[in-house]
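Z., the sequence and structure:
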Amino acid sequence: MEFGSNGSVEDAVVNGGNQFNPPSQGNLVKAIIGLVLFVFIVGGVLSAFYKVDTEEMAVILRLGKYAGTAGPGLQVKLPFGIDKVFLVKTERIMKEEFGFRSMIDSGRTTYKKKDFAEESLILTGDLNVSDLEWIVQFKIEDPFKFLFNISDPVNTIRDISEAVTRKIVGDANVSDVLTTERAVLAQKIQDELQKVLNSYEMGVRIITCKFQDVNPPEKVKAAFNGVNEAEQQKESLIQQAREEYNKEVPRARGQAKQMIQEAEGYALERVNRAQGEVARFLALLDEYKKFPEVTRKRLYLETLEKIMPRIKDAIVLDGQDGKNPVLPILPLQSIEGVAR
């Protein structure tokens, strides 16, 4: 820039600014284009990178079409909205609560139940009402199906879970729901829920379905508690009876076995004794056939030898008719004592 003879800017401006040359229009356009290019490049670089957390999977859509998935870490995509990324927590076990809600207040977990009676009150198969609280835990296995096959997957899971629970509990008796069949019914609900979700191709796997709390309605709670106590008492008596059965039946079986063995032993003894008597009789018969008179007298004397020690007193009669006694009493016992 050059100035007039006075060397002042004012003179140059007063004289029509012939001596002041502003930037050309071409340079201004170049500057704007350069700035735009710089912003474009920076924006492209920034939009080309994204981060996936350790418990997430990234679903990538390229111009609205599925282009694949990406795992945890720093990833690259096409910038300027060509690739759109949807992050899904595939490694986190999610939980839906029915009949209650758990909330964290000042570091403590509290349960709210007051406003969820429509979820928890369920009609059972015997036309009774149970107050059922349950939870469903699930995990996302296919993030693309979870995002795009169903418009609202979480509410869909809630609706299906509530429908399946009411169906299965509605076919059971209230006593089964409140006492012994809770685990069985929960497993049936889990299996049926997984079957329905698979038919919808939601990409979700049910981890567990668990009854959190089962109670009768407040108005009939006392009566149901009485029934429950009676059921528990019945089970206790059944267990006691089984213990007594297991104690007494083996003992009776042992006694019966012992009696059978004693009877068999006695029978064997009697048979052996009878066989011995038969052999002895046959031997005597042979002797009798050989020497009848001697054998008869020997048998007579042996019989007297066995009988006489048992007799205490004897009456001896004289005469053939036995009416004239010589000795009224013969004291054999005293004589036997003297002989000894």
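Residues 1-20 have pLDDT under 50 and may be disordered. DSSP finds ten helices and 13 strands in the chain.

Let me know what you think.
H.
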